[in-house]
């Protein structure tokens, strides 16, 4: 439980880890895919799921 | 030492089964039994005795003088001078000028019955969770009555009335009855932070995740009925909600992870649960991600304790912000609550508050009366998709971690993990939604065109009747005949959909019952969220660095990217407007 383990002690124990190339790739691909999909999904939404009233 | 009982279910599965049982009971309305008509409903009030009544109007006590009898419809003048028309099966023995009395069920009796019913149902649930049932009963009793008192306060006309004049008060805060949710949250926060002894005493019944999950699973029925009435709009909301969360996952998570790793130098073990907790869905996402990357359990738990506190801050601020700036784009506001507010309880709760606040503002400022529940639907749709995707996202992270980053010896990632982490209460939502949708769609398809035709004919009759006196004598007979034939046609049309109308009204009765329960579970959620939100955590040594990442990410871009995504997919989408 968080009360039993001191947060400050846990954070002190944390060691520095270099950002690996695979992590950089994960971040980049995730954002790039997000931006590309935004255009695709907006088009699909407005074309096939118009908001009817 | 108290003996710890074994849990037969976890809260997720319990919420599913509770909703299924309650939903099945509500379906008795199709057999002519209004199984939840006796549940309590609360109205805006200036006199407390008028605040509560049973959900079913047929059960409300009624006494007065009969002023009109038309077929089975009887109009009664009540002691307060107001008239009410009711339908009675047999009018024999009734006459104009005579007295009519229906005993019914008093509001207070209905409230007591509601409490007892919920107490029994939830105590059975608590037993299945392996909780201490005795302590649960005491805790739930306190939770229920404090929550309900807050609900009543929220319905006071000075706080709730959107039209003060109509409510008979000189002014009002115009917050609608849902202000009771906010009152419950504030009282819960007071107890959680200033009366820790009380909070500890009732803790067995302080289970906001259980209450909100049960409420959401029950809400599927109401949304199913609404979707049947506006299928195009509902499918657009569902699809766009799905799109919005795909965007949110891909952009939010990566950005928070980058900031936590690069600028705050968090290790991977801390950064991944932190990114999921801050960016996606709070507690469950942090825990699922922690599990996926094999972080020590203490990490997601610590992240979660911070998430809960910030979620409450969001819940208090964002709905009012949205009311101020987004009332012209109600569905954007609803979806934004689902995307921006973390934890299930706070997200669904903020959807409910924003729904009430924006409807109140649109009505008072622009005279637009939006149908209730659509903004809540946008919020809950995005939040439910987020919940569903957590299991998939956690699986993807597990695969990436195991294959590319660090794989513990003998570790294997299996697709069955997706199901294990899948939120089961979502199945309850899907079942109640689909069942009511399948029942209601064919009814709506048959009823709507006929009702439209009836409206057209009624318009024609009104126009003919208006013109009648000004027409020459010889034409009047023909017009009168046309009016009569139109009236006969209306009767014929009404008869043709009588059976569908009956089933539709039974479906409304069923969803009315589950909705009354949903509102009560929401209310208890607000109160219990407050109780579990311990703001003293913010003063804990070492929390500063975590809190800073959270603050920077949340207020720096999560809120605004969430707003942008909601705007892209939901701007221009408006809830149906209630006519008349």
Tell me the layout of helices and strands.
The complex is a heterodimer of chains A (53) and B (580).
Chain A: H1 7-13, H2 21-48
Chain B: H1 11-26, E1 40-42, E2 52-54, E3 62-70, E4 73-77, E5 83-87, E6 99-102, H2 107-128, H3 133-154, H4 157-160, H5 164-167, H6 179-194, H7 196-201, H8 208-229, H9 231-263, H10 268-292, H11 298-326, H12 330-340, H13 344-366, H14 374-405, H15 416-421, H16 425-467, H17 473-496, H18 498-532, H19 543-570
Antiparallel strand pairs in B: 1-2, 3-4, 3-6, 4-5
Please outline what is shown here:
The complex is a heterodimer of chains A (53) and B (580). Helix content of chain A is 66%, strand content 0%.
Mind explaining what this structure looks like?
The complex is a heterodimer of chains A (53) and B (580). The longest helix of chain A has 28 residues, at 21-48. Helices cover 66% and strands 0% of the residues of chain A. The mean pLDDT of chain A is 82. Chain A has helices at 7-13, 21-48. With 53 residues, chain A is mainly α. Chain B has 580 residues and is mainly alpha-helical. Chain B has two domains: 62-102; 109-441 and 505-570, no CATH class. Chain B has a four-stranded antiparallel β-sheet with strand order 5-4-3-6, with no helix packed on it. A two-stranded antiparallel ribbon of chain B has the order 1-2. In chain B, helix 9 (231-263) crosses helix 14, helix 10 packs across helix 14 and helix 16 crosses helix 18 (498-532). Chain A binds chain B through residues 1-2, 5-12, 14-17, 19-20, 22-23, 26-28, 30-31, 33-35, 37-38, 41-42, 44-45, 48-53, and chain B through 230, 232-233, 235-237, 239-240, 243, 246-247, 249-251, 253-255, 257-258, 261-262, 265-270, 298-299, 301-302, 305, 400, 404-405, 540-543, 545-546, 565, 568-569, 572-574, 576.
């Amino acid at each position: 439980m968080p009360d039993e383990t001191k947060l400050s002690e846990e954070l002190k124990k944390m060691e520095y880890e270099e950002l690996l190339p695979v992590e950089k790739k994960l971040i980049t691909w995730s954002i790039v895919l997000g931006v590309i999909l935004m255009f695709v999904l907006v088009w699909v939404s407005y074309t096939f799921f118009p908001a009817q009233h | 030492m108290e003996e710890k009982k074994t849990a037969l279910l976890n809260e997720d599965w319990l919420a599913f089964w509770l909703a299924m049982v309650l939903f099945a009971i509500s379906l008795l309305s199709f057999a002519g039994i209004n199984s939840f008509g006796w549940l309590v409903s609360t109205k805006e009030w200036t006199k407390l005795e008028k605040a509560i009544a049973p959900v079913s109007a047929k059960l409300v006590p009624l006494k007065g003088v009969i002023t009109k009898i038309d077929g089975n419809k009887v109009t009664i003048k009540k002691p307060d001078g107001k008239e009410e028309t009711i339908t009675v099966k047999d009018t024999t023995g009734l006459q104009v000028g005579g007295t009519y009395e229906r005993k019914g069920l008093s509001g207070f009796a209905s409230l007591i019955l509601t409490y007892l019913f919920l107490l029994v149902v939830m105590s059975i649930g608590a037993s299945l969770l392996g909780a201490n049932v005795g302590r649960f009963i005491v805790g739930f009793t306190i939770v229920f009555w404090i929550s309900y008192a807050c609900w009543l306060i929220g319905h006071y006309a000075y706080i709730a009335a959107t039209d003060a004049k109509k409510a008979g008060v000189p002014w009002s805060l115009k917050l609608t009855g849902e202000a009771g949710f906010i009152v419950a949250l504030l009282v819960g926060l007071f107890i959680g932070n200033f009366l820790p002894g009380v909070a500890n005493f009732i803790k067995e019944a302080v289970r906001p995740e259980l209450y909100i999950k049960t409420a959401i699973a029950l809400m599927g029925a109401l949304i199913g009925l609404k979707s049947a009435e506006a299928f195009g709009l509902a499918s657009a909301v569902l699809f766009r909600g799905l799109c919005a969360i795909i965007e949110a996952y891909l952009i939010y998570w990566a950005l928070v992870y980058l900031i936590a790793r690069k600028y705050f130098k968090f290790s991977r073990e801390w950064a991944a649960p932190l990114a999921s907790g801050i960016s996606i869905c709070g507690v469950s996402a942090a825990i699922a991600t922690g599990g996926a990357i094999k972080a020590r359990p203490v990490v997601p738990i610590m992240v979660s304790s911070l998430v809960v506190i910030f979620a409450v801050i969001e819940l208090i601020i964002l709905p009012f912000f949205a009311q101020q700036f987004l009332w012209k784009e109600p569905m954007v506001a609803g979806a934004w609550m689902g995307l921006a507010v973390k934890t299930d309880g706070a997200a669904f709760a903020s959807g409910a508050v924003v729904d009430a606040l924006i409807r109140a503002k649109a009505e008072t400022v622009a005279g637009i009366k939006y149908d209730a529940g659509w903004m809540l639907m946008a919020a809950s749709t995005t939040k439910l998709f987020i919940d569903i995707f957590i299991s998939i996202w956690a699986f993807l992270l597990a695969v990436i971690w195991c294959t590319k980053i660090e794989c513990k010896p003998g570790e294997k990632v299996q697709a069955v993990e997706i199901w294990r982490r899948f939120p089961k209460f979502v199945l309850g939502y899907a079942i109640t939604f689909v069942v009511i949708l399948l029942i209601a769609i064919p009814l709506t398809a048959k009823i709507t065109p006929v009702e439209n035709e009836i409206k057209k004919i009624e318009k024609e009759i009104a126009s003919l009747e208006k013109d009648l006196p000004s027409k020459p004598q010889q034409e009047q007979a023909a017009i009168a005949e046309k009016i009569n034939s139109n009236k006969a046609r209306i009767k014929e049309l009404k008869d043709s959909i009588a059976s569908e109308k009956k089933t539709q009204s039974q479906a409304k009765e069923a969803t009315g019952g589950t909705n009354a329960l949903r509102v009560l579970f929401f209310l208890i959620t607000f109160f219990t969220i407050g109780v579990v939100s311990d703001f003293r955590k913010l003063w804990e040594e070492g929390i500063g660095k975590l809190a800073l990442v959270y603050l920077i990410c949340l207020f720096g871009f999560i809120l605004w990217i969430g707003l942008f995504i909601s705007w892209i997919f939901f701007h221009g989408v408006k809830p149906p407007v209630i006519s008349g």
